[in-house]
Design goal:
41% helix, two-stranded antiparallel ribbon, Enolase-like, domain 1, 7 helices, 9 strands, 261 residues, alpha+beta, 3-stranded antiparallel sheet
């Protein structure tokens, strides 16, 4: 004979157990509470991400490999992590590090661990920095400082995977190029010829500036090369004379360093 089953201090007969009679059902209010509790972590995550990914009041710009980059400092990155996650809410460590002789760079592999509402999130990224060398002897000035810079670069890249400064890496559609294309087609349709681009020539030899490709894949357009020459040497220079002007400036700086004062 089947024994009776006790459910929450109530005796349920075997026949009721098989038929489902006497089974307690959750009231709608309890189901609503459970749904709300399940939504709370998601809402907290969304709030944390929005605060981490918020735009910065100030950023910095630099030209690397002929490309203008907008970035934040390591101090800005650390401050954002401390303010949003708390000092005890994240940690960063170096997993590997080394020197890339061919690229003349210090590199590190960093790992960022952050707490999102009790859940641990881990992100890894590489960072690098060019080794700073003495202009007179060519020896490294401070390898430790270069590794520190590479570690900061790795930290910022890891933090970007959590939203910190991620908007600075956003690539926008080349509106200018599209506009030029559309304008050219529109001008042809109306019988108007589009204006020819400016012809850039070297102020020293008169040679027309050409596109320059470097071993690392970087490309300088004639307009970029002209801009660098004007900014550094106040002249429009071809790549040959641009390099010669750079070498002459470096030699002059070394001479000044070696002069006794």
């Amino acid at each position: 004979m089947d024994a009776a089953v006790v459910v929450k201090d109530e005796v349920v007969a075997p026949e009721q157990q098989r038929s489902g009679a006497g089974r307690s059902l959750q009231p709608p209010e309890r189901r609503s509470v459970k749904r709300a509790e399940a939504q709370e972590p998601a809402a907290e995550f969304a709030d944390l991400y929005q605060r981490l990914a918020a735009p910065f009041d100030s950023t910095f710009k630099d030209i690397r490999g002929g490309v203008e980059l907008e970035y934040i400092t390591g101090e800005q990155c650390v401050s954002r992590l401390n303010e949003v996650l708390g000092v005890a809410g994240w940690s960063f460590r170096i997993l590997e590090h080394g020197i890339h002789a061919e690229a003349d760079e210090a590199w590190v592999l960093g790992e960022l661990t952050a707490s999102f509402g009790g859940a641990l999130v881990t992100r890894q990224q590489f960072g690098s920095q060019k080794i700073k060398r003495s202009r007179s002897s060519g020896t490294p000035l401070d390898i430790g400082f270069d590794l520190k810079g590479a570690a900061t670069d790795a930290l910022k890249k890891c933090a970007s995977l959590l939203g910190v400064g991620l908007y600075l890496s956003r690539k926008e559609a080349p509106e200018a190029a599209n506009g030029a294309t559309n304008g050219h087609a529109h001008g042809q349709a109306n019988g108007v010829t589009a204006a020819e681009p400016e012809r850039l020539v070297c102020d020293v030899c008169g040679e027309e500036l050409r596109e320059t490709r470097f071993r690392d894949g970087t490309v300088w357009t004639p307009l970029q090369l002209a801009g660098y020459g004007r900014r550094k040497h106040s002249r429009t220079l071809c790549m040959t004379h641009y390099r010669e002007a750079n070498d002459a400036r470096r030699r002059a700086e070394v001479t000044l360093e070696e002069m006794p004062f």
